[in-house]
Amino acid sequence: MAGSASASWALVDSKFHSKALATQLKCPTNSSETMMECLRAVTNEKIHEAVLAVGPGAPDLTLVKFSPVIDGEFLPFDVGRLRKEAPRKRVIAGAAEREGGFMTIKFGPEDSKYHSGPNFSVADFKNFLAELLPESSYQNFELLRTLAAHEYLRNGDPGNHTLLVEEHMKALGDHVLNVPLYKDVQSMVESDWTVFLYSFDYSNPAASVENDPIKKAYHIMEIPYLFEVFPLGSFKFNRQDERVLRIFTRRLTNFAKYGDPNGRKNAMWKAVTKDNKDHYLSISTHPTFQPGFHRSAANFWMTLVPDIERLGRYHIKQPN
């Protein structure tokens, strides 16, 4: 269920892909006016067929080819301004424990560069970090890549394949969901929204694919515990599954009824505040309210990386 307006895939510059789609539909692309006039006459079914023909997924970290755009009409301003000007809302926001596993293990095709196959190596992981920190965007890219490798591999043996697979999914999940979500939560709180933050930290091993060494909660793996539908393949609920379902549905039902996931008593799950910016509810068979929602990753990507980039601007080269 995780998503974020701050993510790289949320607001994609889709001009190139839109022209490719128009070409697939035999619409002229010499001007926006003629292209849009042609597209308006095309049925939804034909557009859907054309999207499937050109492929909806992008081969890079934008992940998708088509997304909302800030067009001055439907989205008149950037998300930050819209959030400040919109009526204040009460929000539940959260992510699964290992969001990136959806792409690296669960549905990562064998030929995808984001798939952690049996031969996934430290070199592969470092290549991925290079994509997260490209030379074209970061002045101090070499230093930042070294620090990123330390951030994710410092707590274990890089030669341990299971560790490497999990840290890869953590890094991908941090980039595409966790850190952008954290940014959104902070933005909402600064604009005086009420936000209840969670991490879905339960997984039935039966829900994992064969030969998955991690077996944790990946993207959309909380859906069965909310709607009793199984988008990633069905499995039989056990007693723990039933308990998590009751806990999760009760919290969201309370939120829908009262605007508070706690209901009218036992205020265990507190809203994020400006003083407690990363407090969240860990949802499992025995939920706990705790600090530190992806704190290390948020500090690295939101504080350390920009600080080092700013430092580089003041570095004075010594004369030869």
TL;DR?
This is Carboxylesterase type B domain-containing protein. By secondary structure, the protein is of the alpha/beta class. The protein has eleven helices and four strands.
What's the structural blueprint in terms of helices and strands?
Layout: H1 15-24, H2 32-40, H3 44-54, H4 79-85, E1 90-96, H5 101-106, H6 122-132, H7 141-153, H8 161-190, E2 194-200, H9 224-227, H10 239-258, E3 280-283, E4 288-290, H11 295-313
Parallel strand pairs: 1-2, 2-3
Antiparallel strand pairs: 3-4
H and E order: HHHHEHHHHEHHEEH
Give me the number of helical elements: 11
| Biggest beta sheet summary | 4 strands, mixed
In whole angstroms, the N-to-C terminal distance is 56 Å
- The quaternary structure here is single chain
Low-confidence region ranges = none
Radius of gyration over alpha carbons?
22 Å
Number of strands: 4
Describe the protein.
- This protein is of the alpha/beta class and 320 residues long.
- It folds into 2 domains: 1-83, no CATH class; 87-313, Rossmann fold (3-Layer(aba) Sandwich), CATH 3.40.50.
- Helices cover 44% and strands 7% of the residues.
- Strands 1-2-3-4 form a 4-stranded mixed beta sheet, sandwiched between helices.
- A hairpin with a 4-residue loop joins strand 3 and strand 4.
- Helix 8 (161-190) packs across helix 11.
- The longest helix has 30 residues, at 161-190.
- The mean pLDDT is 91.
